[in-house]
Design a protein that fits this description.
Blueprint: H1 2-10, E1 15-21, H2 28-39, E2 43-50, H3 57-64, E3 69-73
C-alpha cells in the first residue's frame, strides 16, 4: 500500500497535455516540439486527439514516433 502512495506522489511533478487537432498537419509537429521543450523533464505525455482530419494530421503524428506522444484517432465521433 505504501509503495502505491509513493508512486502516485512521484507523478505529481509531471504534466500530461491533451492536444486536440483537426487539419493541423502544418502545425502539429511545431506544437509538439514547443510543448516538449517548454515542459522538458516535467512532461509525462502529450495526448493528441484527432477527429479524423482530412489532411491526415493523425498519420503525421504516428510517423513522428515521439516517445511521449500518444494518439487518439477518432474516426466516428467529432468535437
Amino acid at each position: 500500500m505504501d509503495s502505491e502512495i509513493i508512486k502516485i506522489k512521484d507523478l505529481t511533478h509531471f504534466v500530461s497535455v491533451v492536444l486536440p487537432s483537426y487539419n493541423e498537419q502544418a502545425n502539429i509537429k511545431e506544437a509538439i516540439d514547443r510543448i516538449s521543450n517548454s515542459l522538458a523533464h516535467q512532461l509525462l505525455e502529450i495526448i493528441v486527439v484527432d477527429d479524423n482530419s482530412p489532411d491526415q494530421t493523425w498519420k503525421l503524428v504516428e510517423e513522428l514516433y515521439h516517445p511521449k506522444v500518444r494518439l487518439i484517432h477518432r474516426i466516428k465521433e467529432k468535437g
